[in-house]
Amino acid sequence: LVEILLRVGFVEDAGKICHRFKLDASDIFIHLTEACLVAKDDSKEWVTLRRFLKVFDKIDIPLDECSHKEEKDDLREVPLFNYHCIVLEIILQKQRNMEIPQWLLSSFGKWCNFYQGLQGSVRSFAGSQSNPSKLIRMLIRYNRLMEACKLCIVLVNAMNVQDIYDKSVISNLPWFPHKLFDQLLGSIPDQQNSDVVMEYKTQLEDAICAYAKLVDDAQKRSVIGLKY
User: Fold this and answer.
1) Using one digit for the tens of pLDDT, what is the confidence trace for 138-167?
2) Is the pLDDT of residue 37 over 80?
């Protein structure tokens, strides 16, 4: 039924059915994204796509799964992110040179905690649907190395320096995706034609080194503190 509705242009009705009966809405987002790619940036297709993402890309969780009592009012809905990934992958597949819409990257940045130093309170990022590496790996796969580097730099720089220097959290540092960074840096050859990409690669290497030094210094201070 959903496929028939999409074929005749009744996207809203298809969306209502999927939402009411909790059906997979992948076909709707494929249809909408493909329509957006042949439309203008401010067209009704883009507006509809963004509205549908807000409605569909989240999931209700039981209150007892919230980790802190004071968070319960804010954590009844957790972003799933699956449909954002579908939208992004279609854009990367069909418009390889298209600039990724800033609102889409901002959504990833907000929901994946790019600006919170990878420290999540609901679920561990390593196994979460909101795992930021999911986005970065997709960018690497489609050779969008500059965007991947920029997001990785944000990730590293968002680490909480005060927490790193607090010896009480040394054994519980936030998840740090070493393999992901190695994969990205290894995807950028030294002979990369784009000077801009090389500049971001250097910035990422510097950020990783600076973070590693902070952790090393904090661990040394922790050892000294235990001795005395």
Assistant:
1) 999 999 999 999 888 888 887 755 555 554
2) yes
Are the CB atoms for 86 and 27 separated by under 8 Å? no
pTM score, whole prediction:
0.74
The C-alpha atoms of residue 77 and residue 60 are separated, in whole angstroms, by 5
- Residue 152 burial by Cβ neighbours in a 10 Å radius (0-12, 13-18, 19+): buried
Token reading at 110 = 């907000």
Q: Is the dihedral of CA 51, 53, 56, 58 positive or negative?
A: negative
Question: Which H or E element spans position 204?
Answer: helix 195-227
Q: Assign 78 to helix, strand or coil.
A: strand
Q: What three-state secondary structure class fits 60?
A: strand
Give the list of residues 6+ apart from residue 150 with CB closer than 8 angstroms, or none.
200
Three-class SS of residue 175?
coil
Pair of tokens at residue 105: 């990257």
Strands (E), the chain: 58-60, 77-79
Closest-CA residue to 89 (of 78, 100, 73) = 100
**CA–CA gap between residue 66 and residue 193 (Å, rounded):** 48
User: CB of 39 within 8 A of CB of 46?
Assistant: yes
Q: Which residue has the tokens 């503190």?
A: 225
Rounded to an integer, what distance in angstroms lies between the CA atom of residue 9 and that of residue 4? 9
Tokens found for residue 73: 């009012």
